[in-house]
Amino acid sequence: MRTVFAALMVALVLPQTATLLHSVPPKVVGHLDASKLKGDPTQLGWSDTGEQMFLQTADRDAVGMVKNTHYFVMSATDARPQSVDAAPEWATAYWGWKSNKTAPGSQTFSIDIKQEVKTSIATSAPMGGSLARGGGGYNPNGGGTSVEDVQMRSQQMQKQQVITLTLHNQVIGEFVNQQFLPGYTFGWAPREVGLIAYATPDGHIAVMDEQGAKQEIADTKDAVLPAWSADGSKIAFLQRTGKRKYDLVVVDVKP
Predict the structure, then answer these.
(1) pLDDT tens-digit profile of 147-162?
(2) What is the residue range of 227's domain?
């Protein structure tokens, strides 16, 4: 009875796999070299007509904050970014609803944002570490805890600022010692579609509905910046292919 109860509780808590969309295999429509774009991608968006896409890149400073943003416009079928002085109005409007905390037209389909400080060990050590060697107390043969052991352990410990995004108990984004960028790991669909696309912790693109049912899009990996087209028929994202190199990938989808 206890096993059955536990299984029911898991079923209630975890998002359920479902068929929310039918999709064709992802298509690479272009290649991007961030070293030539004066920064790494931080925004990706669609024009209202679906013919153009907007790309923003930026550098990060020593503490992970975004600086020196750059703006580009490109064809949605051929990723050849052309530099522009500022983000077009359509790109600003798109990013406003694409990266919001709540889904367009909803007050309840909303992302939970948690900020905390976590402590990690900077260098690897055997399980238990040097502080566990030899039990407690003084040991003339070299066991026990010395002042040097304590100092070394202290130096190994690092505090990390972690911001975690969750939706229906599913992690849809995590930023460690970096500035939180809304929309970097997720993108709301237009109001009529009622879904969200996001990059899973292992880099796949998945979609989720307001009830928590989810579906991974096949053949997607190393993904960032998922972005629905304004008519809800396509999902674009950037796929990391190497150091500062990305493919622009588009998936045709339909309910």
Answers:
(1) 555 555 655 678 899 9
(2) 18-126+147-254
- Mean pLDDT of all residues belonging to the chain: 86
Asked, for residue 36, whether it belongs to a domain, the answer is yes
CA-to-CA distance for 123 and 140, rounded, in angstroms? 27
The count of domains in the chain is: 1
Which pLDDT score, from 0 to 100, does residue 16 have?
72
Strands of the 40-46 sheet, one edge to the other: 40-46, 52-60, 66-75, 78-84
CA distance 130 to 134: 9
**pLDDT beneath 50: ranges in the chain:** 1-14, 124-145
> With the C-alpha atoms ordered 9, 14, 20, 25, is the resulting torsion angle positive or negative?
negative
Q: Is residue 135 part of a domain?
A: no
The answer to whether residue 138 sits within a structural domain is no
Tell me the C-alpha to C-alpha distance, in Å, between residue 69 and each of 40, 65, 87, 88, 154. Answer: 9, 11, 10, 14, 37
Q: For residues 142 and 121, what is the distance between their CA atoms, to the nearest angstrom?
A: 24
CA-nearest of 234, 208, 205 to 222 is: 205
Closest among 78, 64, 20, 53 to 225, alpha carbons compared: 53
Residues in the chain: 255
Return all residues near 122 (Cβ < 8 A) that are at least 6 apart. Answer: 155, 156, 157, 158
Phi/psi at 156 (5° precision): -75, -25
Rounded to the nearest 5 degrees, what angle is found at the Cα of 16, between the Cα atoms of 10 and 22?
Answer: 170
Sheet strands (E) in 132-222: 157-167, 170-176, 186-188, 195-199, 205-209, 214-216
- The radius of gyration computed from the CA coordinates of the chain, to the nearest angstrom, equals 23
- 212 close to 194: Cβ distance less than 8 angstroms: no
Residue 3 within any structural domain of the chain? no
